[in-house]
Amino acid sequence: MTDSETINDIIRGDKEKFRLLIEKYQQMVFRTCMGFVHNKDDADDLTQEVFIQAYQALSKFKMESAFSTWLYRIAVNASLNKIRRSAGTSLFQRIESLFERDNNKVDFFSPVNTEDPESIIIKQEHSLWLKKALDSLPENQRTAIILSKYDDLPQKEIAEIMNITEGAVEALLQRAKKNLREKLMGDGRKKSKK
Alpha helix locations (H) across the chain? Predict the structure, then answer.
């Protein structure tokens, strides 16, 4: 059964079939949200929010693009809105949240973990630098790089999702990569001077 057949059935009253769309696209939506918010709980919440929004707006979906493209748009917008809302969060709350997340990431005493604690801390620091650099990009650049690198989408689909040309996507990706390199190199220089 195709997505459009499933959607038509849902619109005609078979609401249970929406579960099929959730099962098919849940990981995709989660991965996209995670690329923006970097926190599993927030990404889980956003994933739910995306599917609620999609369900409520399903009758407005014109099927001019793929359902996945439409769903990506909802996921990107929900993620960006979440980031904008949390921008008002106090610095103290953000730092506190960061420490809570880092404490939940790795169990140093787990028998499964064969890396030494120093390597784990270095990896976490690198991951944090990358996330901070990614978060500091302008929205369009961040969206393009997340869809490209986290979701591994072709530029043509990114262009559809962002409602821009493929050339514009290419330019955004180039600028995003350049900005990330500069930010990461700049952070590395600052760290080595300390």
Answer: 3-11, 18-37, 40-57, 67-86, 91-105, 117-135, 139-145, 155-162, 166-193
CATH number for 129: 1.10.10.10
CA neighbor of 29 nearest in space, from 17, 14, 47 = 47
Along the chain (194 residues), what's the average pLDDT of each consecutive run of 10 residues? 94 95 96 93 96 95 92 95 76 46 41 62 76 89 92 93 95 94 71 47
Quote the domain boundaries for residue 44: 1-98
Q: What CATH number should be reported for the domain holding residue 73?
A: 1.10.1740.10
| Total domains, the chain | 2
Same domain, 93 and 114: no
Residue 184 is predicted with a pLDDT of: 80
Which of 98, 123, 157 marks a domain boundary? 98
Angle between helical axes of 18-37 and 40-57 (0-180°, round to 10): 140
Q: Which two tokens stand for residue 6?
A: 């499933």
What pLDDT score does 120 carry? Answer: 74
What is the pTM (predicted TM-score) of this model? Answer: 0.72
Residue-level pLDDT at 111 = 43
158 within 8 A of 147, measured Cβ to Cβ: yes
